[in-house]
């Protein structure tokens, strides 16, 4: 696994302060992207929270996930959450160190009071003293929130005085992309009242982690959910239920629980799912990978979009049309870009792989954000994509009608196309049957058939 060091520079530590004027929560920002370009310390919001205690607990839940590893727990994990201003809301996002849990707190318009929300994306400092202060916050006395430097500091910052250096695995970045692709295939499967949500979530096992048991499935039953041993129609997979522990932070304030997942049948071994706790003016969502011992980065949902020149060109065009929308309408983008809707969706998938869009299951819509990382690394260090490009460039692919032969090492594999889908005689296909995206041989065949530009020229 390739790792680099991400330097997060802040003007000062984030802090919760009290004075005669009242309480104030100052969240300091690092370098990020805004409508005017890259800024060292962007400012997104300065106003009041309508439910301070709930917002504090929601932010702590996102920070909990950023600092957690639900698999291989002995390895350290900590990366400051990402914050995006979308004009009408603030979104706080994080990924667990094991790459298997994606968390997002959406503070909606009704959760913010007295100010416009800016546009842009950056990291936000959530340090240990701040976590301790937030955990002690009680009552709903007015709390002023500032995301970004103070007004005076905006023009007088001469340099950074706080710097964090954190390891940034490439698979962590790929996880953001894969989680977005998975969520785009989800539908609402169940909705529970506050009382039923609390009862159900508190009944979940919190024992041993990955590998301890088969995936848990749940199915709507009356006003609640009941466990089932297999993926019957309408069921939702709950792989590693102990990974929902961060939701405990906000349960006492929950107004309901919504559960999202893909269509399943009895042949599906496990799937990802999303668990959204609704709160006054806010939503806290945890998205779980299909296996507690397997992160999102290897799911392969973005590979088809990354393997085509067409999607790359479309993504470049579509990206110019994005304007930090909280909800992206593919049909509107298609009309503006002069492209079919399906090509716009493929372009959005590619932009998601670069951290430039996310997906909100509650709105069933993409949203614009710009992760403050080197987006090209996601494509460069995706092992299957890199291997496929090498195969295509080396002349290892021989296409003959619906059947292609791929020479890989000392072996030759047959790749067949049926109904637009590719299958392969390799072990990867035998193990996963396309559930984790195409194998490198199928990707190489797809590149050659589409004339995708690869290293060494176009094939």
Could you describe the 3D structure shown?
Residues 413-450 form the SWIM-type domain. This is SWIM zinc finger family protein. Keywords: Metal-binding, Zinc, Zinc-finger. The chain is α+β, with helices and mostly antiparallel strands. Among the domains are: 7-167, DNA Polymerase III, Chain A, domain 2 (Roll); 382-458, no CATH class. Helix content is 27%, strand content 32%. The protein is built from 13 helices and 28 strands. Strands 5-4-11-7-8-9-20-19-18-14 form a 10-stranded antiparallel sheet, sandwiched between helices. α7 (309-321) crosses α9. The protein starts with a strand and ends with a strand.
Tell me the helix content: 25-40%
Strand content: 25-35%
Describe the sheet with the most strands. 10 strands, antiparallel
Shape: globular
**Content-based structural category:** alpha+beta
Helix count, DSSP H or I runs of 4 or more residues = 13
Extended strand count: 28
What's the overall average pLDDT, rounded?
Answer: 85
Radius of gyration: 23 Å
């Amino acid at each position: 696994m390739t790792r680099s060091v991400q330097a997060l520079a802040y003007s000062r530590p984030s802090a919760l302060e009290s004075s005669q004027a009242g309480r104030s929560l100052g969240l300091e920002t690092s370098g990020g992207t805004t409508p005017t370009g890259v800024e060292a310390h962007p400012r997104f919001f300065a106003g009041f929270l309508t439910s301070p205690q709930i917002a504090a607990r929601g932010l702590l839940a996102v920070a909990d996930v950023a600092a957690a590893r639900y698999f291989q727990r002995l390895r350290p994990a900590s990366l400051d959450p990402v914050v995006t201003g979308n004009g009408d809301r603030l979104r706080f996002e994080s990924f667990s160190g094991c790459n298997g849990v994606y968390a997002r707190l959406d503070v909606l318009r009704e959760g913010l009071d007295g100010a416009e929300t800016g546009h842009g994306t950056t990291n936000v400092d959530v340090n240990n003293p701040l976590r301790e202060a937030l955990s002690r916050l009680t009552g709903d006395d007015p709390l002023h929130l500032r995301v970004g430097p103070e007004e005076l500091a905006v023009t007088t910052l001469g340099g950074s005085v706080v710097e964090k250096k954190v390891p940034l695995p490439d698979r962590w970045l790929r996880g953001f992309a894969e989680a977005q692709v998975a969520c785009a295939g989800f539908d609402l499967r169940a909705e529970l009242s506050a009382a039923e949500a609390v009862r159900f979530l508190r009944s979940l096992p919190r024992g041993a982690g990955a590998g301890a048991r088969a995936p848990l499935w749940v199915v709507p039953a009356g006003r609640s959910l009941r466990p089932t041993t297999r993926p019957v129609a309408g069921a939702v997979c709950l792989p590693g239920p102990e990974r929902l522990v961060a939701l405990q932070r906000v349960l006492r304030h929950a107004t309901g629980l919504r559960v999202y997942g893909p269509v399943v049948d009895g042949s599906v071994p496990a799937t990802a799912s999303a668990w959204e706790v609704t709160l006054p003016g806010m939503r806290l969502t945890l998205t779980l990978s299909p296996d507690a011992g397997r992160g999102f980065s290897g799911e392969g949902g973005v590979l088809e979009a990354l393997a085509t020149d067409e999607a790359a060109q479309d993504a470049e065009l579509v990206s110019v049309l994005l304007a930090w929308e909280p909800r992206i309408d593919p049909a509107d983008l298609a009309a503006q870009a002069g492209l079919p809707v399906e090509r716009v969706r493929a372009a959005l998938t590619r932009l998601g792989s670069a951290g430039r869009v996310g997906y909100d299951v509650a709105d069933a819509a993409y949203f614009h954000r710009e992760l403050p990382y080197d987006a090209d690394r996601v494509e460069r260090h995706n092992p299957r994509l890199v291997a496929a490009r090498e195969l295509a460039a080396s002349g290892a692919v021989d296409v003959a009608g619906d059947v292609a032969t791929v020479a890989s090492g000392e072996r030759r594999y047959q790749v067949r196309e049926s109904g637009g889908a590719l299958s392969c005689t390799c072990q990867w296909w035998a193990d996963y049957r396309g559930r984790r995206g195409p194998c490198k041989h199928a990707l190489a065949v797809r590149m050659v058939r589409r004339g995708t530009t690869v290293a060494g020229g176009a094939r």
